[in-house]
Q: What sequence folds into this?
C-alpha cells in the first residue's frame, strides 16, 4: 500500500490517509513515518475502543454477517469515516483490508477500490490448520515425520465457507487490485474479470556493495506460517545440509522471532533496525514457507538488494524468481538442501545470481512499473 500511495503522489495526486487502529497509535509505526516522507496531504487517525467494539458486535449481529472485524460495523466509526471522506471529496477511495470494507463501501459517485493483498478467508483457513502447532508464546519444533511439515499439507485442506461472503464484499468495489495472479484467478470465478487487476509488489532496486561473505538469512516474524517455514527448514532441510557442510549457519531476522526454538546452526537476531545491513553480507535468502496467500513480499525485497532466493514452491508463488537464474525454486527438502549447499559453497555463483535478482527487480518490479500499472488503471496523469 505504501508503494501504491507513493505512485499516486509521484503522479501529482493529493492523497489523504485515514487510519483506524487498535492498540499502538499509527504515529508510532514504520508506516506512519513512511507516509510522512512521501508527502501525503493529510493523515487522520481514529483510535478505536471498547465502545466501537461492542457497538460493532451489536450491529454485526443484527446484520448476521460472519465476516469482518466487529468495529467495522460500529455506527460511530462509520459516521467518523463518512465525515472525513466528505471533507476531502476525493474522486477515488482506496482501502487495503477487506475486513474493514463496511466502513468505505456505498459511497456513490466516487470510485471505490481495494488493494487485495490476501484472500483473508483462505489465509485464515490455513492458519487454523497449523496455529495449534505454532502458538505465539512459544513452541517446540515438530518431528521431521510430522505431517504439519509436509510440502503439500495445505493442498487438500477445505476452503472456508466464508469465502463466498468475502468475494461478495469484494464485488461491491469498482476495482480490485490483486497482489498476485492466483488471487485474481480465485476472485475472477465470482466477480467480473474486467474489474480485477493484478498489481504485484513493486520496490526500487537497492544498489549496495554486497559482499556475500556472511551467513544465509531467514526473514519473517512470529507468525504460524513463518514458524512452520522455520521448523520445516530446521527439521527436514538442515539435517541434509549439515551432513555435507557441518559448519553451516544461518541468521534469523524478524519481529519476535526470538520466540522461535533455538538451533545450533541458527543465529536468531530478532528485530533489526536496518535489514539492508543484513542483506549486505548475506549470500542468499532462505524462503521455506509451505503456505500463505497473496505474495511473499520479502522475496522481492531481498532480490531488490541483490540477494538470490532459495524458495519453496509456496514461497516462490507470484514472485520474480527465475529458477537457476536469480534463485532456485524447490519441490522438497532434498532439493532445497542441494541448492542451499551450492550457494553456500559457491559465493561467486551467489554474487552472479544476486546481480541477476536485482536486475530482474529493476526491469519488472521497480517503482516505475507501479506508476505505469496504476496509470493504466486509474488514469493518474
A:
Amino acid at each position: 500500500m505504501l508503494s501504491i500511495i507513493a505512485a499516486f503522489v509521484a503522479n501529482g495526486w493529493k492523497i489523504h490517509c485515514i487510519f483506524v487502529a487498535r492498540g499502538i497509535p499509527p504515529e508510532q509505526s514504520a508506516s506512519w513515518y513512511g507516509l510522512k516522507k512521501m508527502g501525503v496531504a493529510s493523515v487522520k487517525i481514529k483510535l478505536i475502543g471498547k465502545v466501537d467494539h461492542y457497538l460493532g458486535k451489536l450491529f454485526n449481529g443484527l446484520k448476521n454477517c460472519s465476516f469482518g472485524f466487529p468495529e467495522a460495523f460500529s455506527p460511530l466509526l462509520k459516521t467518523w469515516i463518512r465525515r472525513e471522506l466528505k471533507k476531502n471529496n476525493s474522486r477515488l477511495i482506496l482501502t487495503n483490508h477487506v475486513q474493514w470494507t463496511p466502513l468505505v463501501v456505498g459511497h456513490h459517485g466516487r470510485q471505490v477500490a481495494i488493494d487485495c493483498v490476501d484472500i483473508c478467508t483462505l489465509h485464515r483457513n490455513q492458519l487454523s490448520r497449523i496455529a495449534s502447532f505454532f502458538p505465539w508464546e512459544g513452541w517446540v519444533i515438530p518431528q521431521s515425520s510430522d505431517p504439519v511439515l509436509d510440502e503439500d499439507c495445505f493442498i487438500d485442506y477445505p476452503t472456508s465457507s466464508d469465502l463466498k461472503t468475502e468475494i461478495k464484499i469484494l464485488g461491491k468495489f469498482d476495482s480490485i487490485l490483486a497482489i498476485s495472479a492466483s488471487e485474481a484467478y480465485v476472485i475472477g470465478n465470482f466477480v467480473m474479470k474486467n474489474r480485477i487487476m493484478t498489481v504485484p509488489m513493486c520496490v526500487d532496486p537497492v544498489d549496495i556493495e554486497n559482499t556475500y561473505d556472511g551467513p544465509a538469512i531467514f526473514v519473517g516474524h512470529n507468525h504460524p506460517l513463518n514458524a512452520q517455514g522455520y521448523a520445516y527448514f530446521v527439521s527436514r532441510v538442515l539435517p541434509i545440509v549439515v551432513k555435507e557442510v557441518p559448519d553451516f549457519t544461518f541468521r534469523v531476522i524478524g519481529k519476535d522471532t526470538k520466540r522461535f526454538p533455538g538451533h545450533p546452526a541458527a543465529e536468531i537476531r530478532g528485530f533489526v533496525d536496518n535489514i539492508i545491513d543484513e542483506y549486505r553480507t548475506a549470500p542468499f535468502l532462505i524462503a521455506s514457507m509451505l503456505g500463505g496467500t497473496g505474495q511473499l513480499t520479502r522475496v522481492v525485497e531481498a532480490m531488490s538488494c541483490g540477494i538470490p532466493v532459495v524458495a519453496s514452491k509456496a514461497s516462490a508463488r507470484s514472485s520474480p524468481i527465475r529458477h537457476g537464474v536469480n534463485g532456485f525454486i524447490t519441490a522438497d527438502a532434498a532439493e532445497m538442501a542441494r541448492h542451499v549447499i551450492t550457494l553456500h559453497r559457491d559465493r561467486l555463483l551467489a554474487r552472479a545470481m544476486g546481480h541477476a535478482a536485482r536486475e530482474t527487480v529493476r526491469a519488472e518490479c521497480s517503482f516505475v512499473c507501479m506508476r505505469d500499472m496504476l496509470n493504466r488503471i486509474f488514469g493518474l496523469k
User: Anything to note?
Assistant: The longest strand covers residues 16-21. DSSP finds 14 helices and twelve strands in the chain. The longest helix spans residues 224-244. The mean pLDDT is 87.
